[in-house]
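Q: Could you fold this chain for me?
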Amino acid sequence: MAAISIHPFQPLIISTLLYFFLGLLINNPTGCEAENILYGNESLNNGESLEYDNYRFKIQEDCNLVLYQGDSAIWASNTDGKGQNCYCRMQSDGNLVIYEPGDPDRAVWASNTDRDSGNYVLILQKDGNVVIYGSAIWATGTSAQFGTMNWLGIIGSDEPKRNISKN
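A: Sure. Below is the predicted structure, expressed as structure tokens.
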């Protein structure tokens, strides 16, 4: 039976990596949580905002949804005064809607981007643009193959990948 040789620094390297990754989890206990993304079926409640660098996308107490660059408003839904204690919801149909709470909740404003139910996200990008991204248009259907995701395919490409390996 062959003996397994362990490099003298291997336990030190493993310990260091373990402490590093545990440190990341302790500093951010919720994992990888972005401050500039609103996922489908998530809401920004009254006074909350998405932030990226010098940009802030905020649902204000007056029900106005405003994009700020620093202290300057660069875009607004112009819904100030049209409700109270409003919240902004990224819906699973791709529509971004401002609601005033009630029985039932009343829609104050909408992006009018509703489509079929899917996976939509709103992202405050580093260039200050706020964009709603939607469900995939085309895929090979191989994402579950071998339990891994296929990152080589290009969404929307109608060109098949060719197997160039020689048997």
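A (continued): Residues 10-27 form the longest helix (18 residues).
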